[in-house]
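If you are new to this repository, start here. Below is one unmodified record pulled from the training split, so you can see the exact layout before writing a loader.
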Amino acid sequence: MPPITRSAFLRLAATGFPGLLLARRAGALPSVDPTQRERVADVFRMFHLLGSHRTATGPDHDTAEWLLAEVSKRGAEEHPRQFPLDRVDLKAAYVEGGGTRREALPFFDGGFTGSEGVRGRLGLAGSGAPIALVPLDQAAISSEGRSFAALRRDPAVTAIVAVTNGGMPGLCPSNAADFTAPYGAPVLQVSSTAREWLDGLARDGSDVRVVAEATRSRTVATNVLAAVKGTRPDLAPVVVMTPRSGWYQCVSERGGGLACWLETLQAVAAARPERTVRFIASSGHELGHLGLDAFLREEPALVRSAHAWVHLGANIGAAEGRLRLQSSSDDLESLALTAMQKAGARVDARVPRGTVPAGEARNIHVGGGRYVSLLGSSAYFHNPFDLWPQAVDLDAVMGYVAATVDLTQALARA
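And here is the target side for that same chain:
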């Protein structure tokens, strides 16, 4: 039998070909349709199988193709829309000292080095050492490098080595908030498992070599757009959005949002809503929300003209995660809380009104639009082991799926 091609693989996966599925999890809740539960689990399985979802790479393109097939299968009109970017292509990235070398990942919105890298004494930030050693905890990773922006701009600092201390051991990268306007010294992110080694080098004032060699390639990525036409086209539309790219396989980070997005699309398509409902699964999340920015440049009036935006953010239904609700108004928050309560979905925190929200909801908030946003936490956030099934609480996901469907259908009524 000849080997299966990539395109054939994606077509088979989109139709639920059983040979492509991993082992199934048992124990569906009695109140959940087992067919829907398995369909949702398949979203996580497929997202896992597609690989590392960095923007404009092979797996990112494959994910777009898979999602477009899913959109069509579930009854909506699919509209892929490409946007340009200068993708970072790594050649070499590591920190070397004391006869040891550790692989690293540079900030994608920072400086790069040549093949020889830079050499110098390693020391803690503020010590006067030309190569600064800094810790990045979970909060600093979430702040996308802003916590030491001044250090990055310090002309006396030739490079920065950042030890990532996420919820789990490993190299947990920060997003590149300033991807289109990179600045400062090269920042090399290394795994938390290198901390003792680097601390020892810094204490001794040892010389290290830092290499962050990369080029940029002009290419494109794809936003997956879809629409379900309403019976009242005169009414303002509802927009449901979720990011689909990220570091590594990011299964719990992005999978819960995609599962809610696809199930909501399918339910809305079957219900013939009064308002048109538009769906956006954007690439470029880890690069400063690049895909959503591109979409909003093309349709700037939509931010304010939409009846409401539903943002399905990170870690929805992540194992042992906590979910927070972000909203622009009391009425939207109340509608979301009612849907959550009805579905038995847990809300652990509500962001105070007026707070600039995290995730792509921030773009809508800054633009003055109406939004409600679901966003969670995960010990596997930006970790290479954010994989199926260990990082996912499928029971929790099903509750958020039901709540998102109910919320969107309520918003789509006149």
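Two things worth knowing about this chain: The longest strand covers residues 207-228. The first helix runs from residue 6 to 14.
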